[in-house]
Amino acid sequence: MSVPLRTAVDYVEDVSPGSGTLPPRAWYASSDATSLSLNGDWLFRLSPAAGAEDDSFAREGFDPDGWARIAVPGHWVLQGHGSPVYTNHRYPFPVDPPRVPTENPTGDHLRVFDLPPHWPDRSDGEAVLRFEGVESCARVWLNGTELGTFKGSRLPHEFAVGRLLKTVGNVLAVRVHQWSAGSYLEDQDQWWLPGIFRDVTLSHRPVDGVRDFFVHAGYDHRTDTGTLRVDSAVPGRVTVPGLGIDVPTGEPVTVPVEPWSAEVPRLYEGVLATGGERVPLRIGFRTVEVSDGLLRVNGRPVLFKGVNRHEWHPERGRALDPATMREDVLLMKRHNVNAVRTSHYPPHPAFLDLCDEYGLWVIDECDLETHGFTEAGWRDNPVDDDRWTPALLDRAARMVERDKNHPSVVLWSLGNEAGTGRGLTAMAEWIHGRDPSRPVHYEGDPDCRDTDVYARMYAGHAEVERIGRGLDGGPRRRRRLPFLLCEYAHAMGNGPGGLAEYQRLFESYERLQGGFVWEWIDHGIAHPELGYAYGGDFGEELHDGNFVCDGLLFPDRRPSPGLVEYRKVIEPVGITGDGTDGTVRVTNRYDVADLSALAFSWSYQVDGETVASGPLPVPPLAPGESADVTLPVPPHDAPAGEAHWLVRAALAADTAWADGGHVVAWGQFPASERTAPHVTATARPRTGDGVLTLGPGTFDARTGALVAVGDAAVDGLRLDVWRAPTDNDEGAAWQSDPRCGPLWRGIGLHRMRHRLDAVEIGEDALTVRTRVAPAGRELGLSTVYRWTSDGDRLRLTVCVLPEGDWTVPLPRLGIRFGLHTVDRVRWFGGGPGEAYPDTRMAAAVGRWQSTVDGMQTPYVRPQENGARIDVRWAELGGLRVEGDPLFLLTARRWTTEQLDAAAHRTDLVPGDTVWVNLDHAHHGIGSQSCGPGPLPRHHLRPRPAEFSFVFSPLPSRSPGV
Ligand code: GAL
């Protein structure tokens, strides 16, 4: 006789969405009905399999002796029970839908609660128990009675529970399974984190209370009027005092209004009142449409300057608190971001309230991804199997019904990377029918059968330009659709490079309606030994390493240089000039707002110091308009030196998201030429005691190696071409272009040998001839160091001549050396942050200073970082270095080899030496960790090069240097 082993848990592997839940409805944060948050401390027991424990824990009177305590909302794997698993698209279990492994971590959660004293009597209505998010499958009991089961992790589920409630001692029992049939639909690139990770609430539902309602609030830009109609399952009245509206539900009313937009998020407060309840409304009037091939809001095309946002907190995972959500929105607004794709699931509903309030365009994406089926050519893909369609429709409905009243939501997205199939078509049809007011997005269908916009991810610049020009061909329907990059510029590690070039394309072709950088934040998990953990750090048998750390924010929400660059590239005001005609060109790049909210100012800088400044009157240009604004005459008494104009646009007054004075845009351009440092070779080399001196320089007389400049000891100065490959250098394995990191290592650029060929002591110069080359190759770099001096300063000219057949770009080209006792670093050049050839827009020329530690960019996986670009001169460790031409500067307390070997920041142990790189050039950064490499113009091709540095000892230790 065979025993039906799994019957008790059949629902786990059932493709249906669940049982016993109420139909989905609109979300609202507050009403005058009573509610009780059930967030907090719950009792918890973890078992290894779905059926390992019987369900007696759900009964009243069960003794939870020995159970742990757990925070709800939360994930048990982040609270000491089991561990997280990270995979990109591979399912971390055998693919055999809808079956899941027997090893199915199952968390039993218990919460005993009393009703608050004022809780209404049962005769006054129903009570609803609501779960905002549980991963991945739950079975729920109240006071021993089973309520039902559900799947759909990032979607709400409700049960009617009034009949079961008691005044005191209610026992709420929730069994949560990590794996379920639903997991096949939730294969997003992120940590697998089971648990009740969003709020649990009990709400009283008054007799004649508000149930579902749909706010339709369109805007007609031709008449500047809004039309409001609130459909409500329970009839009532709608009032909007600010607009003098007081109408029954279901009845349209048209009045003059200010429209809602991400730039000017005008909301009107209102109330929906039914016989039993009053629900506050926040109404934003706007109309979204695709017409004449463009996506328009309120009649105007919009340009998305977006980010993909996963919910993430380094300690709490996807259990985000309101303060963190607000911080995300504020950070976005302050960095000029105007749009969010809620990759790849509907966010906590409160996040959308913030988007309404502060102003962000939102693509709300359904909780759906089946990417792992790509491994078998999409065979058995649930979205093309009718048995799964009810589950897909359930997900679509739960998203649309919950979020339909948010003006910020301008597009619905069916999900991400789920291939194509009938189920997706069914979702699109349902959504189009239920809410014709919003276009539908989905990237995975190249034919755009079900979508109203053409979306792609990671297309390179050339292809995006072809699409912009309408030369991309493809199916007829697609050719008529507006285009957006729902993902681009993979922000993994150092990068992304090439943002400015994408933005130029978006601004040049109207069909290109912008993009969404992948992604907002690194999903590093705070770890006591590793700093931040990534895939593999919890011993997962299958994982995708640090591919989970690919955000514009570090896990602790500090902006990475990528975000600082993005902010600059997407500035809403263009400020350009060439310093020749006394004017600056100002362009309004907003879609909606004029420039009246901004105050402009100018400053005139000489050698990086501001010598004069003042306000700059700029007309309140309308969107798209430009003006040439006259700059003042530079001050007569300005000191001689290299001069720049800096023009800034700042908020004229406080806003909800930043204080007055916050700079939203700036432009800097030269007002004079720079004079390169000049050293007349007058000093003569002198030898004695095994050393050779030339001006302030001391050398090893045998090898010609520099050993000191003045009092500053210098170690191992030599040519350097190696950088610790960035995630973008390493590239993703599936990229078709050759990936630099592996090529560089293949050739041996990380183990170059330096052969000394000659030390020539001339009349006025020391010349050291070398050949720098890797073992096993005939490739090499003939490298000549020529030292001269005027007695005070020491000039090094490096000549590099590639020999052999070089087919790969160099990582970097410059010199490196070790210094001691460096604390502060001062420089005149690009700053304050890191910049590389294709990530340099945010670097402003100025005088900057930092500590060596402060110059390190804390990428979760250590890699090349921290270069300061366009450096004219730098002072550190008792030395001053001037460049001819400008150079890139890095300084760190470990070698490049140590940086390369480190897997986490905690592997980097400072030594006694500060290693300084002065680079003539760097290879671009690009975005090849998932996307195109650096554009050809940012390749560092091996070719003959000559560059110089002038060293001088600092007179005495200048304060702080
Ligand atoms: C995309 C995917 C994202 C993420 C990204 C790479 O293909 O939609 O979820 O995996 O690649 O980080």
Mean pLDDT over the residues: 96
Assembly state here? single chain
CATH C-level category of the largest domain: Mainly Beta
Contiguous helical run count: 11
Bound molecules: beta-D-galactopyranose
Question: Would you give the CATH topology of the largest domain?
Answer: Beta-galactosidase, Chain A, domain 5
Q: What's the shape?
A: globular
Question: How many strands appear in the DSSP assignment?
Answer: 59
Q: Separation of termini?
A: 84 Å
What share of residues are in beta strands?
35-45%
Q: What is the CA-atom radius of gyration, in angstroms?
A: 31 Å
Largest sheet: 12 strands, antiparallel
What's the number of structural domains? Answer: 5
Summing up helix and strand content along with how strands pair, one would put the structural category as mainly beta
CATH architecture of the largest domain: Distorted Sandwich
**Secondary structure: helix percent:** 10-25%
Ranges where pLDDT stays below 50 over 5 or more residues in a row are: none
Characterization of this structure:
- The protein folds into five domains: 10-206, Galactose-binding domain-like (Jelly Rolls, Sandwich); 213-288, Immunoglobulins (Immunoglobulin-like, Sandwich); 302-568, Glycosidases (TIM Barrel, Alpha-Beta Barrel); 571-670, Sandwich (Immunoglobulin-like); 686-953, Beta-galactosidase, Chain A, domain 5 (Distorted Sandwich), CATH 2.70.98.10.
- Helices cover 11% and strands 36% of the residues.
- The mean pLDDT is 96.
- It is globular.
- The strands form 13 sheets. Strands 48, 49, 50, 51, 52, 53, 54, 55, 56, 57, 58 and 59 form a twelve-stranded antiparallel β-sheet that branches.
- It starts with 17 loop residues before the first strand and ends in an 8-residue tail after the last strand.
- It contains eleven helices and 59 strands.
- The protein has 961 residues and is mainly beta.
- The longest helix is centred in the middle third of the chain and has 15 residues, at 389-403.
- The chain binds beta-D-galactopyranose.
- Beta-D-galactopyranose is lined by residues 88, 188-189, 344, 416-417, 457, 487, 490, 518, 547, 550, 930.
